Amino acid sequence: MNYKKGKLKREIITFLLVILITQLGISQTGRKVESFNEGWQFKKGPFTTDNIAFMQDWDKKWTDVKIPHTYNAKDMQVEHGVFYQGVAYYKKSFLVDEALKDKRLFLKFEGVGQVADLYVNGVFVGNHKGGYSAFSFEITKAVNFGEENTFVLKVNNEARQDVIPINHNLFGVYGGIHRPVWLITTNQINIDVTDHASNGVYISQEVIDNKKANVSVKLKLSSKLKNLQQVNLEHKIYNQEGKLVTKKDEKVSLSPQGVQIFTTSLTLNKPHLWQGRKDPYLYKVVTTITEGNAVLDEITQPLGIRKVEVVAGEGVFLNGEKYPMYGVCRHQDWWGIGNALEKEQHDIDLEMIMEMGVTTVRLAHYQQSEYFYAKCDSLGLLVWAEIPFVNRVSGQESDNAKSQLADLIRQNYNHPSIYVWGLHNEVYKPHDYTAQLTKELHDLAKSEDPERFTVAVNGYGHMDHPVNLNADIQGMNRYYGWYEGKVDGLDTWAKGIQQNYPEYKVMLTEYGAGGNPNHQTEFLGDTWNYTLPFYPETYQTKTHEIQYGHIKNNPNILSSYVWNMFDFCVPKWNNGGIEARNHKGLVTFDRKTKKDAFYWYKANWSKEPVLYLAERRMVEREKQKTNIKVYSNLGEPKVYLNGTLLENPKMGTTDVCYIFENVNLTKGENTIKAVAEKDGNTFEDVIKWNFTSEKTKDYNIKENTKAHAGF
Hints:
Layout: H1 3-23, E1 32-35, E2 40-44, H2 51-56, E3 63-65, H3 75-78, E4 87-96, E5 104-109, E6 112-113, E7 115-120, E8 123-129, E9 135-138, E10 147-156, E11 176-177, E12 181-186, E13 189-191, E14 201-209, E15 212-223, E16 229-238, E17 244-254, E18 260-269, E19 274-275, E20 279-280, E21 283-291, E22 294-303, E23 308-311, E24 315-318, E25 321-323, E26 326-330, H4 343-355, E27 360-363, H5 370-379, E28 382-386, H6 398-412, E29 418-425, H7 431-448, E30 453-458, E31 473-477, H8 489-500, E32 506-510, H9 537-552, E33 557-562, E34 568-575, E35 578-582, H10 596-605, E36 611-613, E37 620-621, E38 625-632, E39 638-641, E40 644-646, E41 650-651, E42 657-664, E43 668-678, E44 681-691
Parallel strand pairs: 26-27, 26-33, 27-28, 28-29, 29-30, 30-31, 31-32, 32-33, 37-44
Antiparallel strand pairs: 1-12, 2-3, 2-4, 4-10, 5-9, 5-12, 6-11, 7-8, 7-10, 13-15, 14-15, 15-18, 16-17, 16-21, 19-20, 21-22, 23-24, 24-25, 34-35, 36-38, 38-42, 39-40, 39-43, 41-42, 43-44
Helix pairs in contact: 4-5, 6-7
């Protein structure tokens, strides 16, 4: 490539990135941020342990890839228990401009699954353990200016006892550079780039009343200049319309010895509050470092003025108003893509989440994309962010769990959408070790961020479990009717919590059942055997209808989170007729089919008009006398069977469900039509069912009376 053309191309890319980043509320001046996603080559092991043979093969079998990339996009998703976990290499050659030799250079990786070692020109630069958090390394001393430089990243997604998650049992840890990579160029004085790969700016805010809010900005500065430097710090707060509303300047002395911390307080008069989906109003804080007239560095961060309270027995309050906690959990991976998502996939997920009327999202069970958190800020979703301390305890993960929690908090500190830090999910024995580690994680979270809550999740249903009550909020996962007990068991459990622990902050953090849209039946009991290959969507729907009715009427469940918004990959499972799949999503893995339960929640939660005939995929009916079920938030619909108006529907478990019982189908094709009117608009939904003859089925489902607390 011609050097001048290559330089021009990089400058154009950088210019476009600056525009894009500005739109996301994280613009930067005084530094240059370039995409480092192009030009990578890749090869996957297993590799020989013979060093001479390894070096002889080093230049062979490389393939060109573009970041984001994963080397498990297919093998992990199609055949249970058969996927590659181990070492792979990425390499890239890049010309570092001679003109940059008086600058500082950094590489920032947003996510690598899951242990990474970076080498520049054969020299080891750094190591990061954790497949979902960002990390950054300074490479100023490692590169050769004016020359082509070779970057090599060694990646390993093998399960390790000292890196959480310690296995692939609950979800697959996809190997590879699955999020973007950035080359960051700064002056010798900069806002710190390597503080757990954070932005180096930490914004805290306190709502005093409707008339005033105090904003505190903690800044970490780094200098590589030899002498003490006098610089000016400037903090400006702009409203959403771009108007400057307050600012503060100060001169400071900056030492080259270590990272220096400076804290500034500002006041916002008559603040416009961030009020969730109703009004996700965002300010921006622009922090600038200048020396004379020269801008040395600048960072822009979002600011949402809000106060979140969690009140036992009452609920979650946002700025003093009761906030409806309509919650889902989200796994990020996609069919055929794995974790190597582009913004398009995140946007599609968010579009469906917003369509359903969701107000809060549990991002399970790991740190997710910076882009996703930023979008939640602007959409007004309350977010639960957590680390991948799940499923099993090894006794060797303590240091890594703390490191990943520090990564999570510092990298996402400024997102107003985040209200709670998740410490663990379904980890138990040895109980004393797990309880102590959870306490230490809670203490770390409170040291890093005193204002937000912490939560830990147990798969058992009793409060006195030995690892419980070491966080601000106790989460419990309950799968009645699926892994244990009967569907109605959730009501008994919830009433027990209400009666015995009225002053405890308790959330139902997972519930639901598997549902394969290709599997349908009318023969449904009050429990199911999850080990069967048959996962009827109709049973999943029944579970959500009954259990959300209980949740809605129990004030001690401060928030509930459906497991899961989307089907996802579990590489060691073989259930429900599709290998390596968890079927509990409300939407299929490929995002193409919204299951009936999706529309159940949309009718209950969304303010958009919903009229939906359920069991539309249960086309081949098994009973001539059957029920027709309609979800409508438009009032009672008119429903016609083969042109005949049906009357006197029974109300379901909430006021959006209308059930026409014991209707008789004719042999052959049957047409069901639902009609509703609101505000002068007419809404219709039509489905067709076939009936040939009566069927009899006996799935012989026996209730599992043993407690199920995870895999």
